[in-house]
Fold this protein.
Amino acid sequence: MSEGVFIKVNIAQGGLAEIGEINFALNAIEKAEKLNIVISLEGTKYKNEYDVWVYPKSVDTSIPEGIVVTNKLDSETRRHLQNGGKAIIIPEHDNLTHCIEGAFQTDFWCYPMFARGARNRGLEPAPGSLGFICKPDSPLLAHFPTEFHSNWQWWQLVKNCKPIILDDTPADYKPLIQTIDNFARNHKLGMIFETRYGKGSALICAIDLLNLQDKPEARQLYYSILNYVKSEKFSPDKELGGDVLSKIIQ
């Protein structure tokens, strides 16, 4: 933990005041971490807090042996899975049709009314989703610190995602990261989900990760996914039928 004190600060009431700069080294941080900057007035209850996410400058995103990373569930990928292999499927967004658009901001209170208003003005309605939920302690996210909900480190990732509609999956099937839909559609939406397939296992990611590798948060999430899939902890207990998979991804 680092801390410091601003000396002889004069903050006038009712306005903005520049009190100085905060500098601290980050080179001692070797893994992805969420930091919290707190600025407070000594002897009072007043304080501001700012979240900062720090990622390593580089991570190893080479594909481990035995894992296929692909953009489609083609015959080669199916054969690899049937024979007991592991696959990470990141579909090309242009080929995804059984999905909704991605959005970071949550929709306003009445999606049908505002969607109708947008269409009447010749505009594309907002995606209408309401954030997402996940389990921060999931081994999927072991190298990607997060809360159980979206926060600012997810901005680029969620904006460049097309959550996949999983309405045809069993009622007890839960995606690893699930986008929350509005009350009007109420789709089950998967941002990242997994399934057994034959003797193997597949993880499907609806985030356009491979085209976001210039973003540190995208590299870090991809790194976390690769480490999860190569581990023994990657062992899906549910199997989505071939008909379901063929419908949602090409």
In short: The radius of gyration is 22 Å. The helical segments are 75-82, 111-120, 155-159, 216-230, 242-248.
